[in-house]
Write a structure and sequence with these properties.
CATH superfamily of the largest domain: Intergrase catalytic core
Radius of gyration: 29 Å
Mean pLDDT: 84
CATH class of the largest domain: Mainly Alpha
Largest sheet: 4 strands, antiparallel
Oligomer: single chain
Low-confidence stretches: 1-7
Number of strands: 9
Order of helices and strands: EEEEHHHHHHHHEEEEEHHHHHH
CATH topology of the largest domain: hpI Integrase, Chain A
Number of helices: 14
Strand content: 5-15%
Structural class: alpha+beta
Distance between the termini: 98 Å
Number of domains: 3
CATH architecture of the largest domain: Orthogonal Bundle
Helix content: 40-55%
Length: 379
């Protein structure tokens, strides 16, 4: 039996197989069929479809699954607009953690409850809150385009709460430990690289993508213009992480001395190897035969030197934290540290290095005493 409604209001009927069918005419003249297990479900589906048509959504394309949408979004939207490493992270997150759980759902049927259940499942499987938060961010970004394109009326991921993330306190090397590291790496081919890393706070990719034309040794300045990444195993210079990452920084005497040592070593090595020297781009930091550095090899070498020196073994990225923490502890203004690191917001700098703020605050208090004492003396 078919329950007919007014013109362009659709109809509902009970099918021989027991399901209820809602039928609606689309603006392009085609018909859309929605199947539910109950008459109430069919009535609600019909109501939602009419509402979506009324606000301009294209419900004719809603039959695609979450997997189909995410696959298309990755190729057509994400890949042309983000860095290769970011796209690789998106693709892995979607393939490993999102599609196996909610990929079969229809995009139009995805609800906040589905996304919340997905996050709870991933946490129970052992993923960290940080990882699950990043997963939610990827899904939220993708669904933002689905809303923009009229495929869905709301962003299901945006309507959920991210897991509570406990801020891990950065524990960089101390000033004395940094000195021990530089001493232990003094004669190592990568020694100048480690010194520049710990004194400038540059990211590893930024360091490995530095060219000699980016450095003015006389003016004592360094310009960050590229980062090195291996794309499909091919070393490639790409744009920095963010617009603020393109920056010019002043170099300390220690940094300048390390760069001068690096340049002299490269010249000597090139003369010794002759045609066996593989360097084609004027990169500052290369392998011992002039090829672009492999990040894993550089990190492994750092760990070897740290272990040999009896020092803690932080990640290479933690050398960046060393530079910032030492400056903040010495009372340097967070705005300067923000510019040095290429952070997009000062809150990011403050939150990351809040553990060294007490020392800086003590220095500020001492300076206040000096100011007030001078005021009393003149008064």
């Amino acid at each position: 039996m078919t329950k007919r409604r007014g013109h362009n209001e659709g109809s509902i009927r009970h099918r021989p197989d027991g399901r209820w069918e809602a039928r609606i005419s689309l603006p392009d003249g085609k018909r859309k069929y929605l199947y539910r297990q109950t008459q109430k479900g069919a009535r609600e589906a019909l109501r939602d479809a009419l509402r979506d048509i009324d606000i301009g959504l294209d419900i004719g394309s809603k039959a695609q699954s979450v997997s189909q949408f995410l696959d298309a979004w990755l190729v057509d939207t994400a890949k042309p607009s983000v860095r290769p490493s970011t796209w690789k992270s998106y693709e892995s997150t979607i393939r490993v953690n999102i599609k196996p759980k909610i990929g079969r759902l229809q995009l139009a049927s995805l609800t906040p409850q589905h996304v919340q259940a997905l996050m709870n499942d991933r946490l129970k499987s052992g993923l960290s809150p940080n990882t699950v938060t990043r997963m939610r961010a990827v899904l939220r970004r993708a669904l933002g385009y689905a809303v923009r394109w009229g495929l869905v009326s709301r962003n299901a991921a945006a309507l959920t709460d991210a897991p509570r993330v406990v801020q891990t306190e950065v524990e960089p090397l101390s000033a004395s430990q940094v000195g021990q590291l530089m001493e232990a790496a003094l004669d190592d081919w990568n020694g100048p690289l480690f010194t520049v890393a710990v004194t400038t706070g540059l990211r590893q990719g930024e360091l490995l993508g530095l060219r000699w034309e980016d450095i003015d040794l006389q003016a004592g300045e360094l310009r960050v213009r590229h980062a090195l990444q291996h794309i499909e195993k091919i070393p490639t210079l790409i744009e920095p992480k963010t617009p603020r990452s393109r920056r010019t920084i002043s170099l300390s005497i220690v940094t300048l001395d390390a760069l001068k040592v690096q340049r002299a070593r490269q010249v000597e090595k090139r003369l010794i190897l002759g045609t066996r020297w593989k360097g084609t781009d004027p990169l500052v930091f290369t392998s011992t035969i002039g090829a672009p550095c492999n990040s894993s090899n550089v990190t492994h070498r750092l760990q070897t030197i740290l272990q040999r020196a009896g020092l803690p073994r932080p990640r290479f990225h933690d050398l960046r934290h060393c530079a910032a923490s030492l400056l903040m502890a010495a009372g340097e203004h967070p705005r300067f540290v923000m510019e040095l690191l290429g952070h997009s917001q000062i809150s990011q700098t403050m939150n990351t290095y809040s553990h060294v703020m007490p020392a800086a605050m003590q220095g500020a208090a001492a300076r206040m005493d000096v100011v007030l004492a001078a005021s009393d003396a003149t008064g």
